[in-house]
């Protein structure tokens, strides 16, 4: 390990947590093991933080935030630019952790780190513009009022933000919360996912090395089952930014009046019309369905194709799927092990349900070794199958044949999810009509669903989320509106 990262590991090899500007060992004396999805062996250990240590995080965050809120915007931006530069300089060790912790292919792991640095740079610049904007209102713009009041409208920090990213993008989706929160003048308590915690710790070392004030940023490691509820219901929390699955529903029910920014699950449908460019559609379906083994909230999770072109589309997709490499993330394979044995078992259960109910296995016999599942393309999936509704989060792509775009849209809108979707057609009028009818946060036209670029608005409907992300939207989420009303004496204001 390079000298840059030497302080983050205890002498016993257990990674430390971060509190009040220092890397520390937990008073619990306990550790949480992180399992390598490829080997199913423990690859790292992190501290199991106590509730007392969490309390200290919020206490120090509250104090540090008061001073940080008075720090000029240009100075906050300087810090973020410095963090971004440090992330680029020390990117490979972070990427190496992603390979081991979440079995992300090596090239994609490095891309995630660099993308995160880019996000910080953009957040700093956008924050200068957006957060520097105020508003002045005069009272006589409302009927019946004289011109004797001025209202100065400004943006002020929320306070302490609890940031909870998911395993599949533990660096990028942490940074997408940390950057806007800090730029907006907040302190942050970060709860990284267990799988991905060490990559998050390496990433946080870049914030530490940038010289961020002590207490402004804390990292609580440990199992969500032990400190999760304590964190999300802590009285010191002023905002929660969460990305993940059904846990978010539970958080939202317990949060009370705490503002929420949540991106949860998705069942992103791909509607392929009869007039679509099938080669283009197949290319994007393969990429959208199988990138990072389908472990993406914006993965294509159900293809709804017009019956007239279904055979041709399925054949084209099958040809592409057959070319996908399967194996180790270190070898940059297209399909790598899914994150855990329980995840692999869940995916297998969905596949077996579809098999029992008559789906066609286009890619041949189902194959699995440990957490590694070979890509599965299923044709003639019906609404009676779980795969028509549930999110597999794995390398399985179901295809349903539909009689019309209206039938496809109806199925899309009947889902409890509404994150993203896409439509393939050569008719722009049809594309807009279908997009308008789809009840999802984003609709891609002639491309697979995708979260980025990171400054685009990103949101989900129904059980797919609350609030909107994207850099400017996240900045807006991390502030409150403050009005200062100046009352003027009529005589001195009218001048004669």
Descriptive report:
This protein has 496 residues and is α/β, with parallel strands linked by helices. It folds into 2 domains: 3-264 and 465-481, 3-Layer(aba) Sandwich (Aldehyde Dehydrogenase, Chain A, domain 1), CATH 3.40.605.10; 269-445, 3-Layer(aba) Sandwich (Aldehyde Dehydrogenase, Chain A, domain 2), CATH 3.40.309.10. The chain is 39% helix and 21% strand. The protein is built from 15 helices and 26 strands. Strands 14-17-18-13-12-20-21 form a 7-stranded mixed β-sheet, with helices on both faces. The protein has a 6-stranded mixed β-sheet with strand order 9-8-7-10-11-24. Strand 20, helix 13 (428-437) and strand 21 (442-445) form a beta-alpha-beta unit. Helix 3 packs across helix 4, helix 4 runs parallel beside helix 5 and helix 4 packs across helix 14 (471-477). The longest helix is centred in the N-terminal third of the chain and has 26 residues, at 106-131. The mean pLDDT is 95.
Outline: globular
CATH class of the largest domain: Alpha Beta
Q: Per CATH, which architecture of the largest domain?
A: 3-Layer(aba) Sandwich
| CATH fold node name of the largest domain | Aldehyde Dehydrogenase, Chain A, domain 1
CATH superfamily of the largest domain: Aldehyde Dehydrogenase, Chain A, domain 1
By oligomeric state, this entry counts as single chain
Number of distinct beta strands: 26
Q: Any low-confidence stretches, pLDDT <50, length ≥5?
A: none
Spatial strand arrangement across the major sheet: 14-17-18-13-12-20-21
Treating each run of at least 4 consecutive H or I residues as one helix, how many helices?
15
* Helix percent band: 25-40%
CA gyration radius, whole angstroms: 24 Å
What class would the helix/strand composition place it in? alpha/beta
């Amino acid at each position: 390990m390079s000298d840059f990262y030497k302080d983050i590991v205890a002498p016993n090899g257990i990674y430390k947590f971060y509190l009040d500007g220092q890397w520390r060992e937990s008073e619990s004396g306990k550790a949480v093991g992180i399992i390598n999805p490829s080997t199913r062996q423990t690859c790292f250990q992190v501290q199991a933080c106590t509730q007392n240590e969490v309390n200290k995080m919020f206490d120090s965050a509250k104090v540090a935030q008061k001073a940080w809120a008075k720090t000029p915007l240009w100075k906050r931006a300087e810090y973020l630019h410095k963090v971004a530069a440090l992330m680029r300089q020390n990117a490979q060790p972070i990427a190496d952790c992603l390979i081991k912790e979440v079995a992300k292919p090596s090239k994609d792991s490095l891309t995630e780190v660099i993308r995160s640095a880019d996000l910080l740079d953009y957040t700093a610049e956008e924050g200068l513009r957006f957060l520097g904007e105020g508003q002045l209102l005069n009272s006589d713009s409302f009927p019946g009022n004289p011109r004797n009041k001025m209202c100065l409208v400004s943006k002020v920090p929320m306070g302490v933000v609890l940031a909870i990213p998911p395993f599949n993008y533990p660096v990028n989706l942490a940074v997408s919360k940390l950057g806007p929160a800090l730029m907006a003048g907040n302190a942050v308590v970060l709860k990284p996912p267990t799988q991905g915690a060490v990559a998050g710790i390496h990433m946080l070392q870049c914030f530490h090395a940038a010289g961020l004030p002590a207490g402004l940023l804390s990292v609580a490691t440990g199992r969500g089952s032990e400190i999760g509820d304590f964190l999300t219901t802590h009285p010191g929390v002023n905002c929660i930014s969460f990305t993940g699955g059904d846990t978010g529903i539970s958080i939202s029910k317990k949060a009370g009046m705490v503002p929420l920014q949540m991106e949860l699950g998705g069942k992103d449908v791909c509607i392929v019309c009869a007039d679509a460019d099938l080669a283009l559609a197949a290319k994007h379906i393969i990429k959208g369905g199988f990138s990072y083994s389908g472990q993406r909230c914006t993965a294509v999770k159900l293809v709804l194709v017009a019956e007239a072109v279904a055979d041709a589309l399925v054949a084209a997709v099958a040809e592409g799927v057959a070319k996908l490499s399967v194996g180790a993330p270190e070898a940059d394979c297209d399909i790598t092990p899914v994150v855990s044995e329980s995840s692999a078992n869940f995916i297998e259960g969905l596949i077996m349900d579809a098999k029992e109910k008559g789906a066609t296995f286009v890619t041949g016999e189902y194959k699995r070794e440990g957490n590694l599942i070979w890509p599965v393309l299923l044709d003639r999936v019906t609404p009676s199958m779980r795969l028509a509704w549930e999110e597999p989060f794995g390398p399985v792509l179901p295809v349903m044949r539909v009689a019309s775009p209206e039938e496809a849209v109806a199925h899309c809108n009947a889902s409890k999810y509404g994150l993203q979707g896409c439509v393939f057609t050569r008719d722009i009028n049809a594309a807009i009509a279908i997009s308008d009818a789809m009840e999802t946060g984003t609709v891609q036209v002639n491309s697979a669903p995708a979260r980025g670029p990171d400054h685009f608005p990103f949101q989900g409907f129904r059980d797919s989320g609350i609030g909107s992300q994207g850099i400017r939207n996240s900045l807006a989420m991390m502030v409150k509106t403050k009005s200062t009303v100046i009352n003027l004496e009529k005589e001195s204001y009218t001048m004669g």
